[in-house]
Amino acid sequence: MDFAQLTRDLEALRSEALAQIVAAPDTAALESLEVEILGKKGRLTGILRGIGALPADDRPRVGAVANTIRQAVEAALRDRSAAVGGAELRARLLTERVDVTTPGRPIARGSLHPSIEAMADIARIFSQFGFVVHESPEVEDDRTNFQMLNIPPDHPARDLWDTLYVDQPGYLLRTHTSPGQIRVMQAMRPPIRALLPGRCFRYEAVDASHGFEFFQVEGLMVDEGTTLGDLKGLLDQFARAMFGANKRTRFRPGYYPFTEPSVAFDVECLVCGGPGCPACGRSGWMTILGAGMVHPVVLRNGGLDPERYQGFAFGMGPERISMLKHGITDLRLFMENDLRFLEQFA
Ligand SMILES: [Zn+2]
What we know:
Number of domains: 2
Oligomer: single chain
Largest sheet: 7 strands, mixed
Strand order of the largest sheet: 1-4-5-9-8-7-6
Order of helices and strands: HHHHHEEHEHEEHEEEHEHHH
Radius of gyration: 44 Å
Strand content: 15-25%
CATH superfamily of the largest domain: Bira Bifunctional Protein, Domain 2
CATH class of the largest domain: Alpha Beta
Helix content: 40-55%
Distance between the termini: 90 Å
Bound molecules: zinc ion
């Protein structure tokens, strides 16, 4: 190996490398060429390995030539890289272009279930009168569900509530939200203004107006000097807020073991407004809830002195309220989760 041979090899490498770089189609090809030519085990290093066999005087000259080749190759790589890089970027921008005219994917929007919506409406209206929502258990004991509410085990009124019992003796699925009255009275002192919404269960055949599972909203007010007039005034306000101003209302006698006197609360028919139609059974009135003055026995069971405190309670079905409000004729629709029904409330 002599100086001339080495220089010729280097020149051959230069022209071959530059030709390859100019012909490289893309960034990946350029990267592998760079390794192949200038890398630690590359062609330039391979040629320079012969430098050790040269006389000491020739070595710097060969080094200088190698340096210019390295610089030329690096410059060529940079130029070509810029050229193919720009083309690649343009191509990518074209393929990844966002078509802003494409219609968006629709987002399915949920809405409140009509039972929940009705309960929220009821709670909103009564909260304006200071009523606060409380919770009580769905699995209740017989004592609180019946006995404390003035319904002893062999009381004929038990027939009003066909009960679903659980395996644990003495326990059942609450048949109404009224046991919440006892729990609230035991937990706090008057003045009490409690609203008790929740799910109830009865062993009933399911039809258009009965379900084995339904919601109820119970209300309880206890204070000194509470009267039936207070109850009537409050329920009038509720009926007007829920069904519209100027709606006429009335009390009819009713019966519950835990209230005395007991009343049914009617609002004038939302369909015919009074004259009578099939929706109201030709009576001109629709019953929206049951209510009454809390029975002294129930007050005492709640730990309150009936000589000092009086109270009223009311209970309503939010589904019934919703049915009256929206003209829905079948209670089963509330439990079937048919989107065609539910979407109408979106
Ligand atoms: Zn009517």
